[in-house]
Fold this protein.
Amino acid sequence: MTAAPGRRSSTFTRLLRHGFTDASAAERLLESAELTPVRADPVLLDALGATADPDLALHGLVRLLEAQPGPTARRELLDTLIAAKPLRDRLLGVLGASAALADHLARHPGDWRALVTYEPHDLHPGVAEFERGLAGADDPVSLRVAYRRCLLSIAARDVCGTTDVAQTAAELADLATATLRAALRLAEAAAPEDAARCRLAVIAMGKCGGHELNYVSDVDVIFVGESAGNGADADEGEALRAATRLASHLMRICSETTVEGSIWPVDANLRPEGRNGPLVRTLSSHLAYYQRWAKTWEFQALLKARPVAGDPELGEEYLAAVGPLVWQAAERENFVADVQKMRRRVVENIPAAEVDRQLKLGPGGLRDVEFAVQLLQLVHGRADASLRSGTTLDALEALAAGGYVGRADAARLDEAYRFLRSMEHRIQLFRLRRTHLVPEDEADLRRVGRSLGLRTDPVAGLVREWRRHAAAVRRLHEKLFYRPLLDAVAQLAPGEARLSPEAARERLVALGYADPAAALRHLEALASGVSRKAAIQRTLLPVLLGWFADSADPDAGLLNFRKVSDALGKTPWYLRLLRDEGAAAENLARVLSAGRLAPDLLLRAPEAVALLGDGDGGGLTPRGRAPLEQEILAAVGRADDAAQAVRAARGVRRRELFRTAAADIIGSYGTETHSAEADPGALVDRVGGAISDLTAATLAGTLRAVVRDTWGDTLPTRFAIIGMGRFGGHELGYGSDADVIFVHEPREGAGEREAADAANRVVAEMRRLLQLPSSDPPLLIDADLRPEGRSGPLVRTLKSYAAYYRRWSLVWESHALLRAEFVAGDEDLGRRFIELIDPLRYPADGLGDDAVREIRRLKARMESERLPRGADPRLHTKLGPGGLSDVEWTVQLMQLRHGAAEPGLRTTRTREALAAARAAGLVGEEDAAILDEAWVLATRVRNAVMLVRGRAGDTFPPDGRELAAVGRYLGYGPGHAGDMLDAYRRTTRRARAVVEELFYGAAER
């Protein structure tokens, strides 16, 4: 009966109510001849409405009916469908969840009968049942058909809820086992001579070995082969060749695409030496490799090794031989470095657009759970055999039972893992394609959501649940390692199993702590008790400990955190800042574990931790010269005397040094929410600019304090401070002195002697006050770049400078003046001094040949005489080949030669001058980039050494842990210090080649 025009039929309305999205198409399908006998049956519509995708299920059912060989077969299917609820739920459930299995049923329309039986032994089949299901397959094509028929029954039990996700994964692994056996049987039947010559064992690895396979996944295997003969009959080489041919044929049987598609790829790349190693090895060869060459990740992979096919005795022998090695892995010398590398989530290879959709590798994904469980197994499975399961959820349960993870945390992780695996299963089941990406299409999300029981708003519900479980995994991933350590020392959860002291020590060592006994003492001091402070610390510490472990010196991070907490623990805002402001806790952890300088600055005034938060503490953005000088001058104005005033200025300097160092560390390391700064040059410029501005403001404040204390408002002479060297170039590092020269000019009515004495007293008092022993770092003033160097007067008048430069100035002094810039004092005097020296540093006629030769001679002499004895020149950042001196002198030579003609070269900053030289065509694009890269790298190494060691240095530290910390600052992971040194040598070697041409070469530039 046709509905009246403009009105919807009652069937259309019912279809919408039952979850159909295209009710018009569904109505047409229900009108088809195949469904005529059951069109009005309410049972069918209810059953279709219960599926993940009613439209897909109805379409698949019509196709299946159309594919039946005749009316009798079609009637049998319909009668069984209506009469037998188990079949109805199974068949329609599969058709509504998997277009790929609907395609299979359309090609093999009799396979629906595999879903009819509903006996107890059918509910949880094992390997034997699947082997019977595959027994009739006598070629790769029929094996695929039989495999899909078995897969059909697994999927049916899964979508109907007969089996949970863990049981489904186990059944998929059992089906894979039976399939590998069937494939080997086919390979042996095709080459009986090879089969007779060898014993071949197939060892399942990965998810198949762990009894937790996906619907579509590579099946990871390792092959072990031995000769079938004994004594004189045993030809090992021939046996291995025969075993290799069998193994290769087995892989092709499963992997190759036929008219029935493929089963899954068999991946043997987890074998010793990976794809570069032989496909089949003897047991002794496997053992020799694992004892000598294997990496930590290979023992982690062996956690899931399980013999599944071929010679069962050989498989068990393999397991017995390599098993003990797995549980010794945590004792390996490089275990900690390997673990730190493995713990770092590898997302670089995931396209940026996919990271947020990754169920497996993304943050809070399946890999996080699996890695955490496997690491704890490696650490504690040595002493506790109950932990040695290859199945993630079984191992997690055992870890909770043994007290290695908290029961509540384990239960929450179990729930999250099950949900994420269920999502992954349902996504893969639709097309039977290997994917770990959450779909973007709304119809796909709706189908997955409905299949997981989210019926009210399946799309929003699915995304919400997925995000919730991923967030739980992210949160628990670190907590899983560290919460039991707190429970072990705090002892606040009666009745729950706890880590033994030895197990706690083992875990800390495995996570990079060199002194686990001290670490446990710190944890006990921080987390014990029932105070609010201890309760908040117990919440924070599991995450903080993970961040400390991610650094080169976790012990120092934890010790420094205890010191800061001891100093600030009773301050209400401190723990609230760490608990409530997202960035503060991670920023603090990074800063406290990155080296000595920043923690030392912080511990001298712990309230500076407020700078690390998101709120009103000023943040980590460096402050400019003007606001810094304003704050310091205001503090000087409030002080009673010069000593108190300079103490206040030095306090501001200490706080701002901490701000700069913290921003540098966090920018270099990156955080969980912000990647490391991609442009190292920008980091260098920020640090150099910030410290130079801070030094200038400190000198301005100190000058004001000294003058006011002795002379009141007016000094008898105008007085200016000129920054030189790195200070004038805005390139100061953390450990740099302030290179300056002083200039004065007597005021009207003041005598020359009075003015000179006043200026010298100002300099002497400034130097004294800035170096007084204090909790604040000293600021050393170095005036050695003045005329005549140390032999000349400390302070000169402007006229004296003019007379000296007119009569006596040497080339090196013109060279030094390239970095001169007014920084404090009388601005007009400073401006006139700069005007005085400009013709010297930018000579109108450039440099003569004699002057160029003199500069080259000075440079060569400096390289040979000033390099410290025993230092490796190739790693000396200042004087080594391709280092700072090489690049700076090359740029400065171009400034002396061409500064008068090229305005862009008239700058005190190295990188700006280099860019101007490139723009003027004085240096090629590539050469300029090479010099810039080397200068930035050498500067960053010097900054890193100061941050790590707390004292300045021009070469890489010899201590392994300090060297690793420098590497982390420069972006190198654990175990890559050698790569860092190689990269430094390579970069500076290229720069030296450019310097040889531009600075020492004959070509005029």
In short: The chain is about 60% helix and 5% strand.
